[in-house]
């Protein structure tokens, strides 16, 4: 049996009568688009043809954008909770220079079909559980925190959480009303909003300004004893990590969401040079079984680069081994793969590799 879509309104079946979303085979259908704050919208999706969403709070999905000039892939953090598995939501702030956010705002409506991949990512309390949490974010960095808090409110509502969000102005605090409602339901949830500037639209009488040691201590006097999750622009994350590090915080309990593609890309290219200098692969054949294509992989090139040279389409987003979008099944042969968390040990044991950071050392056969 499957979940039937009537227009855009799904009729849910019990979970045990459906399978988890398989992004290799199933599209998503947008069920709603909601305004959250100025230039911020939440896009909620169901599985086309029926299914439920199996993920960890804080993970992200990769969305395929049908932009002019070819498909693009962009990663967006999930803001919904896996405790409500019939739907998945991403919350996006429009960025004037971003093709991806513009495309989403202009093209995705209730009823739109969207191809997406995942969920992926290691920024989740499921991998780093604590007895007490500090969720600290700036701007749209609030989205993974919201997923984790929604999950805790359903599954562990008594847990001790301090939730801090920094925004430019009070009206730009995303999810503010829902957070205030959650604080009434969760007896040990403490909220700390930190706008940087006042505004006529939304008067503010609380603490203001950029995060520093003094404000962090006022909002979380016991931050040294908490599992800390931090997400936001790089300067914000650098400031928070510098504050807690200077206090002697055990950084094994500090986690931040990072898409530091530049340094990772440099590492990947360095590794590529090393492979060439080692003289190991010298033009090995990559067979793309699903496309019935073969292509010689030049020394130091990845499976993704080889696929492109052969005209074989493998979806990719970060191209740095982070997002997991380019995961493919390797049927035979050996590769050197230097990933950055985009693939699990179980997937590697099952034969999967990330095409963007895997370099063949023997002829390989790939399902693509
Ligand atoms: S494209 Fe992101 S892991 Fe390969």
From TrEMBL:
Residues 282-368 form the 2Fe-2S ferredoxin-type domain. Coiled coil: none annotated. InterPro entries: 2Fe-2S_ferredoxin-like_sf (IPR036010), 2Fe-2S_ferredoxin-type (IPR001041), 2Fe2S_fd_BS (IPR006058), Beta-grasp_dom_sf (IPR012675), Cbr1-like_FAD-bd_dom (IPR008333), FAD-bd_FR_type (IPR017927), Flavoprot_Pyr_Nucl_cyt_Rdtase (IPR001709), FNR_nucleotide-bd (IPR039261). Keywords: 2Fe-2S, Dioxygenase, FAD, Flavoprotein, Iron, Iron-sulfur, Metal-binding, Oxidoreductase. It comes from the Bacteria. Its cofactor is FAD; [2Fe-2S] cluster. Pfam families: FAD_binding_6, Fer2, NAD_binding_1. Residues 23-126 form the FAD-binding FR-type domain. GO terms for molecular function: 2 iron, 2 sulfur cluster binding; dioxygenase activity; metal ion binding. In the N-terminal section; belongs to the FAD-binding oxidoreductase type 6 family. This is Dioxygenase reductase subunit. It comes from Sinorhizobium fredii (strain NBRC 101917 / NGR234).
């Amino acid at each position: 049996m499957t979940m039937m879509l009537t227009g855009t309104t799904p009729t849910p079946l019990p979970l045990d009568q459906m399978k988890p979303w398989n992004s290799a085979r199933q599209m998503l259908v947008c069920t709603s688009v909601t305004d959250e704050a100025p230039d911020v919208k939440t896009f909620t999706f169901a599985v086309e043809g029926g299914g439920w969403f199996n993920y960890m709070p804080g993970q992200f999905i990769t969305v395929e954008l049908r932009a002019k000039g070819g498909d693009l892939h962009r990663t967006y953090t999930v803001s919904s909770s896996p405790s409500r598995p019939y739907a998945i939501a991403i919350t996006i702030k429009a960025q004037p220079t971003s093709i991806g956010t513009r495309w989403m705002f202009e093209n995705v409506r209730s009823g739109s079909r969207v191809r997406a991949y995942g969920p992926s990512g290691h920024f989740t309390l499921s991998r780093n559980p604590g007895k007490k949490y500090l969720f600290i974010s700036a701007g749209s960095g609030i989205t993974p925190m919201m997923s984790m808090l929604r999950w805790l409110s359903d599954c562990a509502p008594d847990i001790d959480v301090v939730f801090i969000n920094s925004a430019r102005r009070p009206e730009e605090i995303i999810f503010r009303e829902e957070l205030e409602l959650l604080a009434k339901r969760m007896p040990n949830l403490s909220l700390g909003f930190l706008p940087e500037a006042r505004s006529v639209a939304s008067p503010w009488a609380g603490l203001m300004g950029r995060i520093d040691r003094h404000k962090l201590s006022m909002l979380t006097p016991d931050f040294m004893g908490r599992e800390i999750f931090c997400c936001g622009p790089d300067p914000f994350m650098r400031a928070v990590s510098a504050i807690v590090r200077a206090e002697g915080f055990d950084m094994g309990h500090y986690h931040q969401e990072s898409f530091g593609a530049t340094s990772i890309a440099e590492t990947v290219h360095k590794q590529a040079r090393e492979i060439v200098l080692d003289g190991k692969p010298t033009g090995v054949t990559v067979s793309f079984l699903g496309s019935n294509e073969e292509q010689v992989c030049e020394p130091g090139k990845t499976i993704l680069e080889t696929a492109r040279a052969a005209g074989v389409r493998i979806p990719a987003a970060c191209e740095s081994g982070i997002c997991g979008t380019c995961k493919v099944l390797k049927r035979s042969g050996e590769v050197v793969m230097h990933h950055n968390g985009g693939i699990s040990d179980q997937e590697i044991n099952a034969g999967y590799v990330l095409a963007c950071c895997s370099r063949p050392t023997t002829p390989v056969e790939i399902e693509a």
